[in-house]
Amino acid sequence: MSILRILGIAAVASALGGCSSNWGWYVVNPSTASGLSNLKFLLGGLYYTIALSVTAIAISITVGLLIALPGLAANRALRNVNRLYVELVRAVPILVLILWVYYGMPQMTGLSISVFWAGVIALALSDSAFEAEIFRAGIQSIDKGQYEAAHSVSLGYLDTMRFVILPQAIRRILPALGNQLAYMLKMSSLVSVIGMQELTRKANELVVTEYRPLEIYTILVLEYLVLILLVSAGVRWLERRLQSDQSR
Fold first, then answer.
1. What separation in angstroms does the CA of 31 have from each of 3, 27, 132?
2. For the segment 18-56, what is each residue's pLDDT rounded down to a tens digit?
3. What is the residue extent of each domain of the chain?
4. Domain spanning 27-247: which superfamily?
5. Predicted TM-score of the model (pTM)
6. C-alpha to C-alpha distance for 200 and 187, rounded to whole angstroms
């Protein structure tokens, strides 16, 4: 080991040792009553993060598919509708959309919108434009011979999409759909700005009372890390499952 490397390691160790006296990991230490209470408080936002993300992704996939189909039509007007929707929605920052839906939509419609559904609508609307492009690319990747084969057995457009095209397209776009779910989990943190009691909001509230942002936000990072890793593992398992079913 070189002298420079030894000096570098010593400098890092010295810096960490000097900073350790300022750390307050006791606020999230499960062996103490207060630390365990704080951890339970932080984890209390897990349900809302998952419920918000799953509901929004389910809606965005459905809307995205419906928006993608006009983009594949021979009619130019329908393609323009698809393009206009995708470009307009993608141009709006998601945080701005959350604020507009929560504060602006009730004034336009006269209806009261809860924090949860305001977050769902904003996240689903924003993500639907990306889902539309994913579906459009996936459907366009299917060989035209599949359409001709379906037409030869007298399948209509809807049945062709349902039984022939979409099952093949979904296998191809599954990794992209998994990425969007991971993206949705991360973007759900922005709903904290309107008071949604999800993981980030819980962490922010605990920081205000404990004054330990480093320790609390470290736990928050780990929470999101575990969620994303679980989603990635689930998508990979589903990919293998679909590939094995296809090979039979």
1. 41, 10, 48
2. 445 577 888 988 899 998 999 999 999 999 999 999 999
3. 27-247
4. MetI-like (1.10.3720.10)
5. 0.85
6. 11
User: Is the distance from CB of 127 to CB of 180 less than 8 angstroms?
Assistant: yes
Tell me the C-alpha to C-alpha distance, in Å, between residue 214 and each of 9, 46, 211: 23, 20, 9
